[in-house]
């Protein structure tokens, strides 16, 4: 059976849906960009056409996020998983250069503070532990837990924070795609990240992959590094946006010469990317092009305050249906702390052995990609920017109906 | 003026032209993949649709290249520039693990042999030198030149080779995109890489970015690692194919624990990618999808022997016109060693101050992206797989006409 796009409501956790109008324009650009007789993937990344695309994307991103000029915008490759390492490598190099006169044997490996609130921040923490390894020598850094909600199986955010004075970085993941908990939760501010507890000289790092562009970023200027894989609210997979405060654009080769830091592949050096306008080598042209179209689309919609209004309406509606269904015993919401509920990824479980029945009915109604992450199972409805309020209302109606039929 | 694709002949050095039929199919898939009602960029990379795409791409690649099962196929991100580092990191880890019982203080940094025949191999060599840096400690490796044609300004291949017994790797770049020299040159075998001089235990590494899939790969099984950015003959930029002999799929964390090796970001570990079928994290879905379509297209054309026949005809025709024009004094070919002439990238200079005249006439005839790399200037005609013999004949006719009008 061949389906039309309008017959389908795509709740994928990522790669996730994109606006149809954007995809239509991208399909035209793929064959013939702006009447050049060449497709966008067939143009030099150093030509005037692509230069306009990437510069336009940066300008729209800055305007949407109100990003101050203190921060550079980089378009990189490799996704959030690659940034787990790049963040550590660049921050450690910056720290080493700030102590350039200290001989390596006297240089103390810096502490790295991690807030672990779900699967992705746990992975970031694990990567820092790997990069600390230095055989028989001193470790390159000392990663530690500043907070964790692992004991609560990530069904809430951490309840206590213990940041280290002098830590080189403090890391958090704003929205946990798999677990469904988020700092700037739906209910309001009481679950927000404790920005005031992070020491002033510590580089604040946020993984924003799955909530990027869903609303304005609180305290954006306090962050040293914010990164996001595109494949949620921004564009197709294959490009990662990294916002870096300019004092972190450092010469990693000089740090490697000093010693006491892990090696930094040149392609992971933020300074190299910044110095070359993200064109040190060939960038992922098509993912950047589609991201640029999505950014234009968001600007045309009225910016992130408008986007946030719609997203709040979507999340409120879905959680209201789930709470009502939970009261009947038909479902349980995974995240127990209401203020920590993500408004992008909504995991829930179907009780009484009715999961297959739920999924079958969902499939028949055109709902797609509702299965939870393979590591946790259950159901997950991701309601990114390109999922319409209408699609969410249809899902809500189905949940209401399903709960009533229990 | 809006142009049709048929009005344009695209000689870009990369990102470069793709077959129109492939782009037409990709444009449909972008909106609605196989009647799912969802575009290919909106599908989970772990779903059955994308699994079929990436597995099909690997199967077609193996069949086209006659790649033995001793080698894994990885789809990575970051381009050749990222592989400059990844190659070194994985090979050094493998070497360290092969000497696991040697204490770090007694472990001798291995020699890495580089053949430098142009700008890209020079960059690969420079990256190895960076990664050797270890502050006050022993270097992680000892990169050295096994051969170089720098003195000839890369207008020929190296004339002598001096590989080290016991070197951990021997690196060469099969085709130099900027300089236009290539080991398996158009004229025949006399410029070929000296495979028999590489010690048996040395890992042979080839950067194949700009000649990948232009013909069969000579001595493919002797190589430990072959990599290629997609954006020449394979697909859109954003994906890099890496062929790795399975003994090089090693646990880099274990090597880092032993010490004496540079840190390896997890995303650069070949083993992790191989263990996860290139889906350790979200891959660049669209570039892989289009690459899969191109691979299907090449299989349908009859495989790489057929592709090579057409490419040889294109190169022979273009060099014949250039040689004739050089005889009139109107142009000079950059690469002076005829057997080393690339059949993918053909750089030449227009003499007598007529370059602007040449480019103006070229533009009027629909020839596009003929300017040489910004580092060397001049003209460069890249005649990748998707450039038709007809387009090359039209360029030849123009060169003939231009030379006659001198």
From TrEMBL, chains A, B:
This is phosphoserine transaminase. GO terms for biological process: L-serine biosynthetic process. Residues 9-93, 200-395 form the Aminotransferase class V domain. It comes from Cutaneotrichosporon oleaginosum. Keywords: Amino-acid biosynthesis, Aminotransferase, Pyridoxal phosphate, Serine biosynthesis, Transferase. PROSITE patterns: AA_TRANSFER_CLASS_5. NCBIfam families: PRK05355.1. The keyword Metal-binding does not apply. It catalyses: 4-(phosphooxy)-L-threonine + 2-oxoglutarate = (R)-3-hydroxy-2-oxo-4-phosphooxybutanoate + L-glutamate; O-phospho-L-serine + 2-oxoglutarate = 3-phosphooxypyruvate + L-glutamate. HAMAP family: SerC_aminotrans_5. GO terms for cellular component: cytoplasm. Its EC number is 2.6.1.52. Pathway: Amino-acid biosynthesis; L-serine biosynthesis; L-serine from 3-phospho-D-glycerate: step 2/3. Belongs to the class-V pyridoxal-phosphate-dependent aminotransferase family. SerC subfamily. Its cofactor is pyridoxal 5'-phosphate. Signal peptide: none annotated. The keyword Secreted does not apply. It comes from the Eukaryota. One of its GO terms (molecular function) is O-phospho-L-serine:2-oxoglutarate aminotransferase activity.
């Amino acid at each position: 059976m061949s389906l039309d796009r309008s017959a389908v409501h795509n709740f994928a956790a990522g790669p996730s849906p994109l606006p149809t109008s954007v995809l239509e324009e991208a399909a035209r650009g793929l064959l013939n960009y702006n009447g050049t007789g060449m497709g966008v993937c067939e143009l030099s990344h150093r030509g005037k056409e692509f230069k306009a695309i990437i510069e336009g994307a940066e300008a729209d991103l800055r305007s949407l996020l109100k990003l101050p000029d203190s921060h550079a915008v980089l378009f990189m490759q490799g996704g959030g998983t690659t940034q787990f390492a790049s963040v550590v490598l660049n921050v450690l190099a910056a720290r080493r250069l700030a102590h350039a006169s200290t001989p390596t044997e006297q240089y103390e490996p810096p502490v790295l503070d991690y807030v672990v609130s779900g699967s992705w921040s746990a992975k970031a923490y694990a990567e820092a532990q790997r990069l600390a390894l230095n055989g028989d020598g001193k470790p390159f850094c000392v990663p530690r837990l500043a907070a964790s909600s692992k004991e609560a199986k990530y069904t809430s955010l951490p309840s206590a924070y213990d940041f280290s004075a002098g830590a080189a970085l403090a890391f958090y993941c704003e929205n946990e795609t798999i677990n469904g908990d988020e700092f700037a939760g739906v209910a309001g501010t009481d679950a927000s990240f404790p920005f005031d507890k992070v020491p002033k000289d510590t580089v604040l790092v946020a993984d924003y992959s799955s909530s990027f562009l869903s609303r304005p970023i609180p305290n954006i200027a306090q962050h040293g590094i914010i990164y996001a894989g595109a494949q949620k609210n921004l564009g197709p997979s294959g490009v990662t946006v990294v916002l870096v405060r300019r004092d972190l654009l450092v010469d990693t080769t000089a740090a490697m010469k000093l010693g006491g830091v892990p090696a930094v592949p040149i392609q992971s050096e933020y300074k190299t990317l910044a110095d070359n306008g993200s064109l040190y080598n060939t960038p992922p042209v098509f993912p950047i092009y589609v991201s640029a179209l999505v950014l234009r689309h968001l600007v045309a919609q009225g910016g992130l305050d408008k986007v946030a209004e719609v997203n709040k309406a979507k999340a409120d509606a879905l959680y209201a249906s789930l709470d009502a269904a939970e009261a009947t015993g038909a479902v349980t919401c995974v995240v127990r702390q209401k203020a920590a509920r993500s408004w992008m990824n909504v995991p829930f479980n179907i009780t009484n052995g009715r999961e297959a029945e739920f999924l079958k009915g969902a499939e028949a109604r055109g709902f797609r990609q509702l299965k939870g992450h393979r590591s946790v199972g259950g159901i997950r409805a991701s309601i990114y920017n390109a999922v319409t309020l209408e699609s969410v209302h249809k899902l809500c109606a189905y949940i209401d109906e399903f709960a009533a039929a229990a």
